[in-house]
Give the backbone structure.
Amino acid sequence: MRKLLLPFVFALNLLAQGPADLEAVVNTDLGSFRIEFAPDKAPKHVDEFIKRVREGYYDGSAFHRVVAGGIIQGGDPLLKDPKTPKNLWGTGGLNLLKAEHSDMKHERGTVSTVRIPDKVDSDGSQFFVCIYPQAPLDGQYSAFGRVTEGLDIAEKISRVPAGENGFTDTLVRIKSITLDKKKTEPYLNATLDELKKVVEMKTTLGTVRIQMEPGWGPETARNFLKLVATGWYDGTGFHRVVKGFVAQGGTAEQRASGPVHLGDRWVRDLKGEFRDDVKHTRGIVSMARGDDPNSASTSFFLMLGESPHLDGKYTAFARIIEGADVLDAFDKEPVEGEAPKRRVEVISARVE
């Protein structure tokens, strides 16, 4: 009996959550993506969308209009009926809501509301997702959320075959839209003691164990653990090896599966945490950055030798406690300039 009650209790918990604590999970023929809401920008649109989701309004509808790499549009209730003629696609579920224009930009991933062309205050149930920034739409349409995971799925939908007016040759079915508790950022509120973790990082050249030193750079250590916990580093390459100096990796562009990852929502620039008393010696792990001292985000480097000119200018946040042989292997790895001649990558990284 207890097991039977669990889904019911979970549903009650979701009903008690406010819009800022919820996300929508859009399940389609081509995969799923998640949307977080912006109730501070379009409260009525968010409330109506959540209400419709709870009623199963969108289940069985479809994405019917696309611009490759640009937008996808769906949510027309008429499309639940497979016999709806193509000349009526996109005509249902409109003229139901007044506009809620705001300063929210139509950037990549923004979710906004469809309206009748040239008619303000004609918003409704239909929505579109920006795959590419749509600046001309800013202040003209009611943006109410953004995609936090699965933007690659939305982009995949945008590239299905389409004909006149961007109508898809075949509808991409919305199997369901459900509500889920908003995911929280790993280690966001962890104490210094809770950040004193060890990370096991398996690479092409072997495995290293990395001891976090949050006392050196607490927010940098927090950031690294967060990315490890989400699997963000898995499959990323080491793009720079300078013998006796550094092995650098950890960029989205070097990920074998592609640059988009579910942890991207929590990637941000970090304020430098520079300390003259923390030395960049062999085995130290530190964060790469650009010319701006506060531009570090994901890219890190392993020290292969002593480099005092980095002290006080880069944020060291951890040290290798096992795997000195891997550092030796980096020093021996064939390179062309500073780039490895073969692909060397983080196979996986896990918090122990």
Q: What stands out?
A: The first strand starts at residue 22 and ends at 28.
